[in-house]
């Protein structure tokens, strides 16, 4: 008795599921004068973690830039990874002329090493100034995967904000929220919570300066992020495919504003 009923219920819910899957969310509007810099640690961060945000913002502006700190040379194949990074970013909407790589000798890919905040500030600040960046996007203090290179960028960005003169108020910074592990790997289930997620998506979130912000993907964005990830030929070992299948960061990004510490 119960089983056929469940089956009917399942079939009945299919259209709802399809709607949630295929619906591309309407992203929060980016104000016309915003100039955005995504600050990442390694090639492939852009598609592993930041895809929903890049795909929401890139159609809205030509003032979206990417700065990757290291070329991911931990395995000695950094130079192979640089063109992979450029192709991936291009698919996510940032062409090569707006994507930059630092490759500072003291900020190299290393799983056991945190990066010095002073060096981050002095390396990143010239890009912020040259492109008149108004919005800096980076990792939070847990760096999604607790990679010290990732969370170093949070502390570097915090220090960068704090070091600016008080009248340079037009720079704000946001950190990508690290989800607890049960949310991090529940990617497809995220779809079911989309009604709830939409409820929190506000129209002009960035320009009104509210402290949290959310971007979500529909299936089309998911597949684009998948394609971007495929550009990283040197990285596609089996567990990365698992990540693609289960990661929530393919479907949603939540951002929290990094507050300036002012005396
Ligand atoms: C930089 O951007 C801000 C905010 O959009 C704007 O007020 C300012 O005039 C810009 N400065 C330059 C030098 O372009
Ligand atoms: C990574 O950093 C550690 C020290 O934290 C150092 O011993 C090691 O040689 C570094 N690895 C590479 C590949 O530079």
Automatic annotation (TrEMBL):
From the UniProt annotation, give the residues forming the signal peptide.
Answer: 1-31
- Name one process (GO BP) from the record: GPI anchor biosynthetic process
The Enzyme Commission number assigned here is: 3.5.1.89
Query: Which keywords has UniProt assigned to this entry?
Result: Signal
> Which Pfam families does the UniProt record give?
PIG-L
> Listed GO cellular component terms?
endoplasmic reticulum; membrane
Q: Care to name a GO molecular-function term for this sequence?
A: N-acetylglucosaminylphosphatidylinositol deacetylase activity
| Similarity annotation | Belongs to the PIGL family.
Which named protein is this?
N-acetylglucosaminylphosphatidylinositol deacetylase
Per the UniProt record, the source organism is Serendipita vermifera MAFF 305830
């Amino acid at each position: 008795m119960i089983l056929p009923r469940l089956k009917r219920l399942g079939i009945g819910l299919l259209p709802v599921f399809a709607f949630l899957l295929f619906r591309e969310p309407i992203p929060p509007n980016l104000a016309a004068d915003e100039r955005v810099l995504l600050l990442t640690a390694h090639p492939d961060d852009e598609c592993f973690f930041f895809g929903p945000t890049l795909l929401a913002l890139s159609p809205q502006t030509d003032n979206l830039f990417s700065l990757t700190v290291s070329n991911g040379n931990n395995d000695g194949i950094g130079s192979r990874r640089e063109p992979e990074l450029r192709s991936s970013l291009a698919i996510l909407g940032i062409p090569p002329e707006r994507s930059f790589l630092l490759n500072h000798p003291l900020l190299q890919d290393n799983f056991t090493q945190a990066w010095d905040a002073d060096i981050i500030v002095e390396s990143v600040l010239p890009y912020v100034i040259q492109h008149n960046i108004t919005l800096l996007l980076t990792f939070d203090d847990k760096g999604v995967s607790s990679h010290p290179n990732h969370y170093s960028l949070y502390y570097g960005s915090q220090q960068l904000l704090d070091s600016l003169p008080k009248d340079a108020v037009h720079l704000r910074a946001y950190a990508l929220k690290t989800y607890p592990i049960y949310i991090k790997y529940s990617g497809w289930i995220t779809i079911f919570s989309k009604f709830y997620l939409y409820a929190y998506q506000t129209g002009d979130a960035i320009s009104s300066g509210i402290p949290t912000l959310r971007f979500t993907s529909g299936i089309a964005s998911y597949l684009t992020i998948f394609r971007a990830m495929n550009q990283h030929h040197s990285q596609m070992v089996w567990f990365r495919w698992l990540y693609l299948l289960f990661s929530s960061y393919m479907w949603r990004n939540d951002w929290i504003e990094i507050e300036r510490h002012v005396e």
